[in-house]
Amino acid sequence: MNKCTAVALFDPPDWIVALFASVHRLESRHLLCELGGDHGDDHAAMLWDEGGRPGSAVWARWAGKSMRLASLDWCTAPTPDEEACGLFGGHPSMHAWDVTDPTLEALKRELAKDLPDLFPEDGEGHES
Predict the structure, then answer these.
(1) pLDDT by residue (tens digit) across 94-124?
(2) With the CA atoms of 107, 30, 84 and 117 taken in that order, what torsion angle do they form, in degrees rounded to the nearest 10?
(3) Backbone angles phi, psi at 11, to 5 degrees
């Protein structure tokens, strides 16, 4: 499944910047939703993680122009290789390993043409 294409401007008000000043530097930036494309209207992007502890990841969640920050636990679903999902617990849609970012995949294919040793899985005979 392709990644959601929703983008939001994260422009924290001064009081939020002051609240987090001792922990993280918050600045305006564009956030890209990290969820699979079929999740509905509530988007999400991780802002930072305080070291993998439960509830240590701070996510921006938005729907339309309404945005909130939430400290969320990590999804505990493992792959068969025991790799972590990379999204928050209870996330809608697919797990991170089932979500493809088409832009990153296109960049990877282009890099593999010039640097085949770095991308052996995309070497000769690979069809895009």
Answers:
(1) 999 999 888 888 888 888 888 888 887 755 5
(2) 20
(3) -125, 80
| Dist CA 58 CA 55 (whole Å) | 8
What does the alpha-carbon distance between residue 47 and residue 43 come to, in Å, rounded to a whole number? 13
What is the overall mean pLDDT for the chain?
Answer: 85
The token duo for 76 is 């505990």
pLDDT single digits (tens) 22-50: 778 888 889 999 999 989 899 999 998 87
- Residue among 87, 13, 83, 81 nearest 49 (CA): 87
| C-alpha span between 99 and 110 (Å, rounded) | 20
